[in-house]
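User: Before I run my own analysis I want an independent prediction to cross-check against. Here's the chain; please return only the structure tokens and, at the end, one sentence I can use as a sanity check.
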Amino acid sequence: PFLYNFGQKIAPSPLDWFEWVHITGYWFLDKGMKSNDQDGEKRKNGLMQLIEKANNEGKKIVYIGFGSIVVPNPKEMTRNMVEAKEKADFYAIVTKGWSDQ
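Assistant: Structure tokens:
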């Protein structure tokens, strides 16, 4: 199955989606979550600090994911993305995806 963690009001399910594709709504960390993974805890704490900082500053947080994209010049694309992010004045969580290009 494919699960999309955004709301139907943001992007309703297209009529041509298969029955195994679902929009689940947003996902939230459980404040009572326990973990023995120290790196995971550091990431969670860092994320919570970013969310708090963004809220205090009235800024949005945008997820930018590249999935399986292949680009001819990844350094230029990254530079352009950072420049656009700085001009738009928001925080970004960026994942590079599985491709090294």
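Sanity check: The mean pLDDT is 84.
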